[in-house]
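seq/struct pair 1
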Amino acid sequence: MRDVTNVVIIGGGPGGYEAALVAAHLGGNVTIVEEAGVGGSAVLTDVVPSKGLIAVADVMTRIRKATKLGLVPADASRTSLLDGVRVDAVAMNERLLKLAAQQSADIQARLNEEGIRTIRGKGRLDGTEHVIAITPDGVEERLSADITLVATGTRPRDLADARPDGERILNWKQMYNLAEMPRKLIVVGSGVTGAEFASAYHALRCEVVLVSSRRMVLPSQDSDAARVIQDVFEARGMEILSQARAIAARRTEDGVIVTLEDGREVEGSHVLMAVGSIPNTEDLGLEEAGIELTPSGHIQVDGVSRTSARGVYAAGDVTGVYPLASVAAMQGRNAMYHSLGDAVAPLNPRHISANVFTSPEIATVGVTQDQLDSDLVRGRAIMMQLHSNARAKMQDLNHGFVKVFCSPSGVIIGGVVVAPGASELIHSLALAVRRRLTVDHMAQAFTVYPSLSGTVAEAARRLHGHGGDEGISY
């Protein structure tokens, strides 16, 4: 009988706890060292509370549409159902933090059931075969590690002249401490985080100014999708300052002033700084262990999450591969499958599905429009507007589309969905990409009528039979 393998995981976020569960299942003796609480920032201060906030905003969006659907206030003195709704910021944020804490507790309970030890504290490598765990009261424990996984995540990036104070100048981890709804929220940064918070707070009837350094919001997304979101934001009354770069923020007596690079100043009650993130790779003993970092400070890993040091793996945002909880989880699982001798396939970026939780949402998988347009990938595409879908008409959905990409032979290689619930609709396309299904496979599968998923199948039907690279339709 072989000796039990000691697995030590630094960081208890999705990459860490999913890796721990796999390692325990495969017979490892597993210890997690986590400073804030299992679930990490994804559960405690990022994904769970932010998507909970967006769920509240979605309710407000539905209420806003109620009059068009024939729902009017019983009190004739009110012109809209929204007139009778007020956001209780304290109650809302307390609920969001409670949800996060409960999710963390549920994960901890599962880890306990599997016999996984959790140490509350910081961890650092001591060579490649030991990890030092340091508890909050300074007690150190040296752990033997046959396999080590580093999953320490990232933290919000700060500007030197816009340091968060947790009251008026905020990063995204601090948004759930607000005791009142902002009178006017300035959001600096129009990437995924900035766009999601801007969308949510604007739906919650907060005046929002979005400061975007680019010509269009969401510059990393499909350009057609980004254009829809920008058009929706502006149609709903959000102010977008395009090609504007914030360089400073300062408090006033009852608010903030954000200074732009061109000298303009923007006044508001609060400002959210969403200007990127920094990997948590300091003071971990990485360089001493021979672990290579990228120029951005992320840990360099291969397709199965190996670092340059024998026996040391890394997973999640700290690797800079994709800042997604689902990717972190997959990287963590792959690391344990590989290190403990189970079958594993390298992470394939084209199989990753991602979502932007604006209203409407943007979901993507596989190859991109840019890759097709630049001839990096040969294929065909079709884009179908959502407003022609019967279910969309019933729900008064006027913005969005389904875009499907296929190879010249008809194999589905990617897609984009812009719609409410796009995060659910993308799964069929993700499965098609993963299993190399053809447009005929997709077209011939039954869909419910009426349903938004019917547009996915209709797009596949439209792609049937088009030869070569023809058939691109917008």
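seq/struct pair 2
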Amino acid sequence: MKLFLATGNQHKIEEMKKILADTDIEILSKNDIETMPEVIEDQDTFIGNSLKKAREIAEYIGMATIADDSGLVVQALNGQPGVYSARFAGENATDQENNQKLLELLKDIPLAEREAYFICAMAFVSTEGKEYTVTGKCHGHITFKAQGEEGFGYDPLFIPKGYKKSFAQLGSEVKNKISHRAKALDKMKDYLIK
């Protein structure tokens, strides 16, 4: 089965390819085509954004497509950054700027109240217009300062439940087993392979 991953994020492409490596699903991405239209993520839910992306790209590419929308949800911040995770500190914000803003907003919040979870909403759209969505979550908490060099986004600030190291310290082998994206992809894999 050939599947197109509708993401411009090279980190996500590599992560998803690693997670699906043990299947007979052939993954194509922006690296395999000349142009990919930019889809405006203007929905107010992760599922809404992932479905919009998958529909538009599947129609453009003409092949079965998977798209995801993921982000960080922090309880003490009423669910922020949420669907705005990638642009939390502004439209073209860097990971570092987003992380700084998050730490600033949480500076007076004690560790016990820094609970958070990563969520990944993933949508599949076939060439016939068949649609399927799944979500995966990884619970944990936000640290007081960035820790580790690996990963991307909020990984240096997020300690998954049951661990003492951040996603950026745990490395891709561990992360790809316990992350929100891994959990969503596992569910999607079950659907695609059945």
